[in-house]
Structure prediction request, 359 residues.
Amino acid sequence: MATMTLLTRRALTTAALAGALIPAMSFAAPRKPIVIAHRGASGLRPEHTALAYDLAIDQGCDFIEPDLVPTKDGHLIARHENEIGGTTDVASHPEFAGRKATKTIDGQQITGWFTEDFTLVEIKALRARERLPQLRPGNTRYDGQAQLLTFDEVVAIAKAGSQRSGRTIGVYPEMKHPTYFAGIGLPVEDRLVALLKAHDLNSATAPVFVQCFEVGPLKAIRGKTKARLVLLTAGQGGPADLPNVTYAQLCSPEGLKGVALYADGLGAEKTQIIPQDADTLLPATSLVKDAHAAGLVVHPWTVRAENYFLPASLRRGDPAAADYLAQPGEVSKVFKALYAAGVDGVFSDFPGLAVAARG
Prediction:
């Protein structure tokens, strides 16, 4: 555990098909910040599975988040990355051994198995497994139990969860690597717009946000859907489709005014709002205030409970224990600091803790 490499959102990576989430239902933003279940309750179940999404709904989340990547035959499925060697049992399928490849995705060379080389029927032969077994060993007990999901199936889970809970459960899809996929003949934007329309999610009041780390795809989709759009940003780097632009520039007061021309919200990395050093949380920045001034809602990512992701002052347990970094820390203080900064929602792998801290 001591040598575990720092993990980021970019690197970390049921129900039958259904129609509309809830026909003709309008969705008003709640007074309290929304809780977005990051790939479901992914701190407690393998991510992007019905197990994780259903648990998140039962824990009180407002939205469930599927990252979307296409299959060879154009279906959008819920996976953190198009490389699925780390999140499925594909390596144990001898019939797929020849599909292993090395590709360059957004400038990074990656070796593994990729969704764009599989049909949906082949994808359905695979089973999900925990992506972070060292950090979340308890989740490995669910390895092999869950199929991979299409976006239609995620919407169906949200619909069933809405009926079960009596709350409107929204969906918060992310377009993953859209410029890359457009370059290999599998553009994501039009496919997603068609699905939003098919599920009656094509309005500014529907329970949906569409997010992306890239600017061009958001601008492209802006003219095709009325669904609310969110630009994702990070503390370092910049959009893969704009190599000369940094996220820091986009998150400046002037940059945010430009973002508001094609997006409704900002999905900032949480440390852009509440910085932290090795020991403690630091005072809030002006980012929420600046984004609100530009007319943007703010939904930071991603709050995780394990000591590994927390500064030293919030870590709990025995530092000498082999699983110290996997043990839960005092994450409620992170949630409360973000809420106090005025955010409009939070992404978390532990939606139940986010709901509890929200009060």
Remarks:
- The first strand starts at residue 34 and ends at 37.
- DSSP finds eleven helices and 13 strands in the chain.
- The longest helix spans residues 151-165.
